[in-house]
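Morning!

This is the sequence you dropped in the shared folder:
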Amino acid sequence: MNNNLLEKIDGVKTKVEQFIDEIRDIFSQTNDEVEKKNRLEVFDTLLLLATYASPAELEHEFQNVLPHDQGNTVHYLCQKLREINGFCQNSLSDEHEVYQNLFAEIDFPTESKKQAVRELLSKKISELIFEKTHTNVPNLGI
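The structure's back. Tokens below.
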């Protein structure tokens, strides 16, 4: 893969990292220590689920653990977690703007080259989430 493509993949990873940090900052402002800890644990759980769960499983978990009167923050959180899940599970369409931007860097974009890009992006995002959630995942090949 060429350097421009690798830089763009790292750019997507950086945006995911910024999202994680942003949500953590928001939840860290919670005054009640027990509630703060709970929110951060739920967020970490949802992040980890986004790396391996099916979209339906992720939606089910949203219904179980998030408030039903979803405000802007919860709506934003769900939207970004769905996107992360799509990257990690390779379930987003080739037409997704992130993929379009990445595939534009491929000379003669065959299906196998596109799949290699999807897999690398999935790996980078999954590794980031494991790092951010302090999750040790030995021998997964990720």
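Headline: The chain has a mean pLDDT of 93.

More detail when I'm at my desk.
O.
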